[in-house]
Fold:
Amino acid sequence: MLEVESLTTRYGAIAAIREVGLTVRAGEVVCLIGPNGAGKTTLLATVAGLLKASSGKISLDDDDITDWAPDRILRSGLALVPEHRRIFADLTVNENLLVGGVTRTGTRRVELRNQVVDLFPALSSKLQTSAGYLSGGEAQQLAIGRAMMAEPQLLLLDEPTLGLSPKLADVVFDLIGTLRSAGLTLLVVEQSAQRILEVADRGYVLRSGEVVASGLAPDLLARQDLFETYLGRNVDST
Amino acid sequence: MTELLQQLVDGFGRGGIYALIALGIAVIFGVMHLVNFAHGELITVSAYAAYGLFVAGLDWWIIAPAIVLVAGLTSVAIEFVAFRWVRGAPDFTMLMTSFGVHFLVQAAFVMYVSANFRQFPRPGWIFQTWKLGGISLEVFDLLVILLTLLTLGITYWVLQRTMFGMSLRAAAEDFDAARLMGIRSDRIIRGAFALSGLLAGVAAVFWLMRSGQAGPTAGLSPMLKGVLAALIGGLGSLTGAVMGGVILGLAEVLLISRLPESLVGLTDGIVFLLIALLFVFRPQGLVTVRRAERV
Structure:
């Protein structure tokens, strides 16, 4: 479904990611883990079209989307829930959702809004509330729901539990399970390596802009050396 | 009391024009982080269009909507010719581009038309007055207040109720997040310039009805007032821009009426001083704008 080949993205002279390759197959949950500054967010932003790739190729199904604009990539079925959620705080919850469905027709947009509200009941009573007043957990649900409005086949989640309490993080991990059951393909960047490896099918470990390990999630989870060397903590302590 | 009411009517009339200009400036700032100093050129071009249409023998009833249309089209054209090429450049580059457009348009009119102002007749009926109690209501002020309210109402409806409006507000808050939603940057920026131009066009109709002249610098004063009003309100805030315009208009009228005659010439200077004081206490303007950093 998604194929990233030898992808390099630079900020000026500095390469934030170098020669990165990864594959996400339809129906999979794939995670991308690594320490801060490893280039995970840069990778997702490049795949979603927000950053220009310096070299390499990104393919979505049979299309080469490397140089496509974000709106065209979205229309092809790939949506990104960005780091820090970036919901539109001055818009109401309802408006956020409708803007998320801007690529759909008016009637379909309303149907999708109702489906998203069914999936995230916490939002139903807050449709007319300014999104800036939502709690962290509600805001995350809104950010994911907003991306779902575009009916993506592949959803990229960048640090979905960032800034959330452990209890709310549990809600997000449950949500990832729900999305997977709904048939969505997911590529998730997450700091809580152990937690995401427990729900993912496969994973990639990124460090200093390069993929240093990859494999099935249970195999990565069993590799104590990865956690000690690249993720900066012991499995047992996470 | 009567005097104060009279001044409030005058102030709202003047402030309404500033509010329309400021709102256009705020719309562009919202989506592009650009203080568009070329905004006044929309009024300059409108002024020459009005003059040309008058020479052609047309009446204000036709000239007024034509001015609005000309301003809207000019705004989109300026975006297409100038700002599209520096999109994504540092804010300073865009600011310099806006100055470039400002000076180029002025120079073009000086070179190919004339450095002198051209006069055209103002509609006489706007200066008629109605007495209501002790207040003397000038038709022009009532017209400005009513049409400004109508224009702001329509703009509010567009921004709140249409997908274009919601997309514009979303893009103003976080442009990259809006692009991730599938909002096309080309369309939203073009739409913002069109809306901004139409608002400037309505303001131009009022401004030109009052001034009755076209010249290379016709848009300079309204542009400066609009920028000031937008700054007072909090740059990028649409509500703030309207508030800023009305406050600026009221401040000017109240000062003019209260200052000794020998100091009336200093009105603008005193207004600037008051604004500087406001920024000492509220550097962000009256309304604080939340905006995400770009990726």
